[in-house]
Amino acid sequence: xxxxxxxxxxxxxxxxxxxxxxxxxxxxxxxxxxxxxxxxxxxxxxxxxxxxxxxxxxxxxxxxxxxxxxxxxxxxxxxxxxxxxxxxxxxxxxxxxxxxxxxxxxxxxxxxxxxxxxxxxxxxxxxxxxxxxxxxxxxxxxxxxxxxxxxxxxxxxxxxxxxxxxxxxxxxxxxxxxxxxxxxxxxxxxxxxxxxxxxxxxxxxxxxxxxxxxxxxxxxxxxxxxxxxxxxxxxxxxxxxxxxxxxx
Amino acid sequence: xxxxxxxxxxxxxxxxxxxxxxxxxxxxxxxxxxxxxxxxxxxxxxxxxxxxxxxxxxxxxxxxxxxxxxxxxxxxxxxxxxxxxxxxxxxxxxxxxxxxxxxxxxxxxxxxxxxxxxxxxxxxxxxxxxxxxxxxxxxxxxxxxxxxxxxxxxxxxxxxxxxxxxxxxxxxxxxxxxxxxxxxxxxxxxxxxxxxxxxxxxxxxxxxxxxxxxxxxxxxxxxxxxxxxxxxxxxxxxxxxxxxxxxxxxxxxxxxxxxx
Lengths: 248, 260
Description:
The structure holds two protein chains of two kinds. Helix content of chain A is 32%, strand content 25%. Chain A contains eight helices and ten strands. Chain B is mainly α. Chain B has one domain (40-254). Chain B is globular. The interface between A and B is medium-sized, with 26 and 14 residues.
């Protein structure tokens, strides 16, 4: 279980997170929604320790993440980045097997390659992609490779940062389905940040709405349309009028 | 208040400069500590050695040969004013080995390697590849910075040695080809005049310049701002800082080796 308690983060005068409280149950899929620039990515990076929070505590299974052994802590996570964040200089299979080629999870090269190809197959890519460079792939294929990398070491917790941004609707649907299937079959805890409502409905067990640095609403995805929260209503209906100020 | 404002501005600029010096020093110490501590990434070190060393050979060789040749012409024409044309071999040798070889190689490395490292790492930062490294339990200081800095420390002295030899050869070619020097006498004068300290100082300078050039590339890359503009600023800043630090270090090292 991931628990955030009174987490705040500011960059200069810009208070991105203000007293955020949120719990993500083990094995569940939590989706954080909110407009661009509302601090969704910062929240995710705070949990991973990429950005230190100014105040508050973040615990994973009751242990403060700032006091945990970093390698052991990070070995429990997989992450799909918004732009896939594949390493340009490495072929696809070495990107996927990155964690398996070095560090505490190191495996023989042939075994790591076999696992990488199996994970590529799991996300719908053929083995011939393995030796290509990321720059030779389309955006959708890069997302799939990023997903394969995120699941390569069978993590307990997977983070998805805007998994469908920049993809056409059909490819976005494919990625959503893959995420749902993989999270279910691995029994992993998932946390996704997105403003794509199709993704939300496809991926989420629970939804939290982040706006102006605070969690405005949280609840099961089945209650999203009847939340009664004016922020959520405006966001999911895509209206310009409402409590969320829309800059024209 | 108006009279005091220049002092305030000076104070702020000094504090900002000291903050940068502090950050760069901490970065350098962290990088050097990672050079000495496992895990070591052999593939990354090999690639850095290839890129910084082998692939820099053409530009280093061309720079050195033309500089050595021009130096021979300058010394010959300048020396003719007081009947000292014969000192061309000795001055070319001492000029290339003590000064021009290390400095020119250092500046070429700053132009070719520092900019490339800064742009590459800054792009990795902008595209979240650095964050991805961290989430994959890999320390970017160890994986990206340490191999490049170690490669700079190892290979730039070797480039300087190659540059020294090629520069001397450039002077030799011009002196024997068009200035009427005897080839055997030219080489003998060169060898007789150079001392071990000249060569040692050249290699030490190469090591220092290699470290500075790679450190600046890595520092500016890791500290890059967002977007294409951030990458551009990081690249420009890294080359400026590396060039200035190389010239300043050259002055200090020359003083340390030869002022006594």
